[in-house]
Amino acid sequence: MAFTLSTTKTFTNINCSSKPSNITPFKPLKLPLFWPWQKVKMGPLSVSPMGFGTWAWGNQLLWGYQTSMDDQLQQAFELALQKGINLFDTADSYGTGRLNGQSERLLGKFIEESQAIKGKQNEVVIATKFAAYPWRLTSGQFVNACRASLDRLQIDQLGIGQLHWSTANYAPLQELVLWDGLVAMYEKGLVRAVGVSNYGPQQLVKIHDYLKTRGVPLCSAQVQFSLLSMGKEQQEIKSVCDELGIRLISYSPLGLGMLTGKYSSSKLPTGPRSLLFRQILPGLEPLLVALREIAKKRGKTMPQVAINWCICKGTVPIPGIKSVRHVEDNLGALGWRLTNDEQLQLEYAAEESPRSMIQNIFQTR
């Protein structure tokens, strides 16, 4: 469901002198799609129209995390809260090696020490994802995973408990057990709502219908969705979400950074991302040109335009943040909207680009 705000009144300039004058009508005033402090519905929850992802918090391999970054991460989190962002996405698997779960631990620490929400911690919506590890073979084990996340986050109840991926492709019997685990954590009051991640359209309908028979509404579906990931299957997922009243959360709205304009074939990021960028970036010129053109015309940045496109499509994007600068720039995606023509321009440019984002290997059909 997309939320838009507009006015239908037409205002006029009236010349009150005795001489005849022409009355010049103004164009209908259109308010921005969302301001930062406005909220959208996500099941029983009210969340900011954009959340922030914390995949990088604790991930040394892909994002170069070091514990020395914790202060700047906390400053970024505090600024986000001050500006009205209340949705933060994480996972029990975020963090590499001995830092597994670090993202949740940092979020818990930052919430506990926050001055922006002192006494109002319940207003923060934490959406965490539980990995479908092969050793999680009972619903009780999945509930225990939820309790462990709550301990790391230092909170009593999650906003959204999400199944990180489906096992339907390789362990279909485990899939039903994990669904029962979502039901159990909901019935025990450990989560206010449940969601899924990396579910394709067919499997999304199946879990929605199963949860419905158990009296548990499916609140959200988190998938890779961006101008780099807007193919037929992603559009089908969005259509299913719209039909069933599920809010789509779009992760990687900037294509791991490829849509920021910071990188080129001769300027690649460090680490494993460089391999992916080397394959895809050379074919993105039509899309990057369109993003740059609209950004310049609007006085915005390329990331702001790319994120705004996701919002215009009725999704809640969750770009990752690692610094105050990231927060400030991403906030610039709110409070305005792309025109229909601008959206089409971007979509045509994306279709003209011969390369698109590689889909998550865990996404089912």
From TrEMBL:
Gene Ontology molecular function, alphabetical: oxidoreductase activity
Assigned keywords, A-Z: Chloroplast, NADP, Oxidoreductase, Plastid, Transit peptide
GO-annotated cellular components: chloroplast
UniProt subcellular location: Plastid, Chloroplast
Domain NADP-dependent oxidoreductase positions: 49-343
Entry protein name: NADP-dependent oxidoreductase domain-containing protein
Source organism (scientific name): Thlaspi arvense
